[in-house]
């Protein structure tokens, strides 16, 4: 039976914004003006950027007006994120100075088109006669103003051409209007030594950068060596290295020629770099390199990058394309990992057993073998492999986890099958994520007060849903699917569904009891996507089969509807996460008579690169300011939903000398989690359930937004001001002001939380009535 959603008043849908707009994540790009004459210089610049900063890969905007298709192809071969933009010469037709046929003048004009870009928050311009020799991290972390290196010869009030670090306030119509007005007035000087119009508008008002970020060739006259700390070497002057160079600058030009490489040599040089290699560059340059050379180690690196991004089949394909020697354990392990992630278990087992022969890869290989056996339901084999991993490395955390899972005796089912509901969820391990630990029980409370095995038959989402599992589910009254953001591609990958429930289509089709999807979330991070058609096919079948399909926020609803045909859109409805209405669901709940005078702080570190981008240092410094400000008013304590969350306390102490108590919530049972959050006065949390759980027990919240789902929830309760982006330029001040405002008006804010909660409870009650009809209760 399928129930059509009734006319229940729900919170307004979340705005249809991009993920980075919701999280406030800074969009960073490089930019340059390129023409055919300077193309050799630009190609060397691209190579130097990748080789000197192998972990950096932002969009590179190429401004041009005459590049040939073959030239564009050569550029694209070197960088995976090229954005081509034609300059608009009409902007400059009315300018009163400048020889339009002079390249240096045209370049000075056309680079002004950078200020007309609106897609980015920070743009770093580079000249085509530059090479990058050092780390650009400082430039990528800049957050304010327009930064440049002052001119070396012609006065510190002017900026030198080539390098600019431009922030959002300058990428505006208002600033462009100033540039155009100055250009039309003719009140500027334009020659090969300066930026002319820009210098006239700024009049010295720019952030000064160290000369090493735009180290001009002229400082090396007399064949001086390039200083070791030079980050960007700029070949100013008429004579460029690719045109034959200039006498007296031999050592500088030798540095440029380090990047005069063929595509094949460039790819090999990048793959040979140590340290962190950026996923996009590694895949872009490594794929043709592996195809040409068949190099096993390069194939392993590219495959590992694919796995990190959730592109498991791509990882299988590239490692399967090369011959892996029997004694090279690491590639066998990575291939085994990729194969198990697409549910090709027998092939994966063979690869992992080969990897287990090497002592340095054995523990990880055994842990993966234990995981596969557990997924297939073979606890004895899983325990055997996990024990082997521990014997190789007694400290190996993953092996210990699988030993614990495989050795745990499942609770005895007390009720009869016909009285039970089957429940697919992610059942968290001891010391696992506190929010995920609480979720399955809270979902069950949405169907009644008895959450025990008398009423419920547990189905772990990550174990293969085989014929035996299908038979057990069909013996129950119905199937509930819910307990977190199950729509995420990489937490426990499988090739059967490409989301967290490991269910083949044929077994999903075989379910003949009502299927109720309850408060599931679409959990892809900003910068993460579902690339597999397999997920869409499984999702469509699930929606078709479901009698009830409820998602926990309107943002998830929009994302899922976009993947479905129109006729299925109306089946997707709003069902708030039950943790947000815990006060209504927990039998005998009583609000605390007195609260502790504390503020609890939570930060999350899973997928830290997607959460923070280049801004972690900024985030930590701003949190330190907020902790000092709030701490002068109320005691601040850290709360860890998982072990990784404890990093915030370590980093604050090491970097800023702040010591905070750490509460290990991952060790708490469900009642203790709710009780702690109910007793505190305010929770500042980055995890989704560090917002939803305290809200559900009536505690005010401020969300540190690093994931779209935080903004989705705040939009649903019509309180976007209860969130602040981890990227906010003034995070510390904003957080302090809002926190103290909530603490000073605490009773009123708690009343507001209760009122917001009532809106979600009405939706939950209306859905519960529909669910009772579905279940014939």
Description:
InterPro entries: Glyco_trans_8 (IPR002495), GNT1/Glycosyltrans_8 (IPR050587), Nucleotide-diphossugar_trans (IPR029044), Polysacch_pyruvyl_Trfase (IPR007345), TPR-like_helical_dom_sf (IPR011990). It holds the Pfam family PS_pyruv_trans. This is Glycosyltransferase. α2 runs parallel beside α3, α14 runs antiparallel to α15 and α25 crosses α26. The radius of gyration is 29 Å and the shape is globular. Helix content is 43%, strand content 12%. About 1% of the residues have low confidence. The longest helix has 29 residues. The protein is an alpha/beta fold. It is built from 31 helices and 22 strands. Strands 3-2-1-4-7-6-8 form a seven-stranded mixed beta sheet, with no helix packed on it. A six-stranded parallel beta sheet has the order 12-11-13-14-15-16, sandwiched between helices.
Features:
single chain; 777 residues; alpha/beta; seven-stranded mixed beta sheet; six-stranded parallel beta sheet
Short description:
By secondary structure, the chain is an alpha/beta fold. It is built from 31 helices and 22 strands.
What's the story with the biggest beta sheet?
Answer: 7 strands, mixed
Query: Number of DSSP helices?
Result: 31
By DSSP, the count of extended strands is 22
Structural class: alpha/beta
Main β-sheet, spatial strand arrangement: 3-2-1-4-7-6-8
**How confident is the prediction overall: mean pLDDT?**
91
Low-pLDDT stretches are 6-11
Task: Categorize the overall geometry.
Answer: globular
Protein name: Glycosyltransferase
InterPro entries: Glyco_trans_8, GNT1/Glycosyltrans_8, Nucleotide-diphossugar_trans, Polysacch_pyruvyl_Trfase, TPR-like_helical_dom_sf
Organism: Streptomyces incanus
Pfam family, one: Glyco_transf_8
């Amino acid at each position: 039976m399928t129930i059509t959603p009734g006319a229940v008043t729900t919170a307004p849908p979340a705005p249809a914004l991009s993920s980075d707009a919701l999280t406030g994540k800074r969009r960073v790009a490089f930019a340059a003006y390129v023409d055919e004459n300077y193309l050799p210089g630009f190609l060397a610049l691209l190579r130097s950027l990748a080789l000197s900063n192998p972990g950096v890969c932002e969009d590179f905007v190429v401004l041009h007006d005459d590049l040939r298709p073959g030239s564009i192809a050569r550029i694209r071969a070197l960088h995976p994120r090229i954005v081509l933009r034609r300059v608009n010469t009409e902007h400059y037709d009315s300018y009163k100075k400048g020889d339009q046929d002079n390249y240096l003048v045209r370049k000075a004009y056309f680079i002004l088109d950078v200020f007309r870009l609106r897609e980015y928050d920070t743009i770093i311009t580079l000249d085509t006669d530059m090479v990058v020799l050092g780390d650009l991290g400082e430039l990528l972390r800049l957050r304010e103003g327009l930064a440049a290196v002052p001119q070396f010869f012609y006065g510190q009030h002017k900026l030198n051409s080539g390098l600019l670090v431009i922030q959002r306030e300058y990428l505006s119509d208002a600033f462009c209007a100033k540039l155009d007005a100055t250009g039309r007035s003719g009140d500027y000087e334009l020659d090969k030594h300066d930026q002319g119009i820009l210098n006239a508008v700024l009049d010295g008002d720019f952030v000064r950068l160290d000369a090493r970020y735009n180290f001009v060739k002229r400082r090396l006259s007399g064949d001086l060596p390039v200083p070791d700390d030079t980050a960007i070497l700029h070949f100013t002057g008429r004579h460029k290295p690719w045109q034959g160079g200039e006498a007296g600058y031999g050592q500088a030009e030798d540095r440029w020629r380090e990047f005069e490489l063929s595509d094949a040599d460039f790819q090999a040089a990048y793959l040979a770099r140590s340290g962190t290699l950026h996923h996009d560059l590694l895949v872009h340059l490594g794929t043709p390199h592996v195809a040409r050379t068949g190099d096993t180690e390069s194939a392993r690196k590219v495959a590992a990058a694919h796995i990190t991004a959730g592109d498991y089949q791509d990882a299988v394909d590239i490692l399967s394309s090369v011959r892996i020697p029997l004694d090279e354990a690491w590639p066998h392990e990575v291939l085994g990992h990729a194969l198990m992630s697409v549910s090709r278990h027998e092939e994966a087992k063979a690869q992992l057993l080969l990897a287990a022969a090497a002592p340095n890869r054995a523990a990880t290989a055994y842990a993966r073998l234990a995981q596969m056996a557990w997924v297939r339901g073979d606890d004895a084999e899983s325990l055997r492999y996990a024990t082997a991993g521990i014997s190789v490395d007694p400290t190996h955390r993953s092996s210990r986890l699988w030993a614990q899972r495989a050795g745990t005796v499942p609770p005895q089912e007390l009720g009869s099958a016909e009285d039970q509901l089957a429940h697919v969820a992610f059942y968290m391990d001891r010391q696992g994520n506190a929010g995920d630990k609480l979720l399955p029980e809270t979902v069950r409370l949405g169907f009644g007060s008895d959450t025990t095995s008398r009423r419920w038959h547990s189905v772990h989402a990550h174990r293969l849903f085989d014929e035996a599992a299908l038979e057990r589910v069909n013996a129950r009254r119905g199937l509930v699917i819910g307990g977190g953001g199950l729509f995420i591609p990489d937490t426990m990958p499988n090739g059967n569904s490409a989301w967290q429930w490991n269910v083949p289509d044929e077994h999903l089709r075989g379910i003949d009891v009502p299927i109720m999807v309850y408060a599931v979330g679409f959990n892809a991070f900003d910068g993460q996507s579902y690339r597999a058609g397999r997920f869409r096919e499984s999702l469509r079948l699930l929606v078709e089969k479901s009698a009830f399909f409820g998602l926990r926020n309107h943002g998830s609803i929009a994302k899922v509807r976009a993947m479905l045909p129109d006729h299925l859109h109306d089946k997707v409805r709003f069902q708030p996460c039950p943790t947000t209405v815990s006060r209504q669901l927990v039998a005998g709940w009583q609000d605390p008579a007195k609260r502790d005078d504390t503020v609890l702080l939570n930060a999350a570190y899973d997928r830290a690169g997607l959460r923070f981008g280049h801004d972690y240092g900024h985030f930590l410094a701003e949190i330190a300011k907020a902790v000092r400000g709030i701490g002068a008013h109320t005691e601040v304590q850290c709360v860890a939903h998982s072990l990784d969350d404890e990093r915030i306390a370590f980093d604050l102490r090491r970097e800023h000398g702040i010591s905070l108590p750490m509460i290990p919530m991952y060790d708490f049972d469900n009642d203790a989690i709710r009780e702690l959050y109910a007793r505190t006065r305010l929770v500042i949390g980055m995890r989704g359930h560090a917002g939803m759980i305290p809200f559900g027990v009536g505690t005010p919240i401020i969300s540190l937004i690093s994931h779209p789902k935080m903004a989705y929830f705040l939009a649903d309760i019509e309180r976007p001001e209860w969130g602040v982006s981890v990227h906010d330029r003034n995070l510390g001040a904003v957080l302090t002001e809002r926190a103290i405002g909530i603490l000073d008006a605490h009773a009123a804010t708690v009343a507001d939380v209760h009122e917001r909660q009532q809106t979600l409870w009405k939706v939950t009650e209306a859905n519960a009535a529909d669910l009772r009809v579905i279940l014939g209760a």
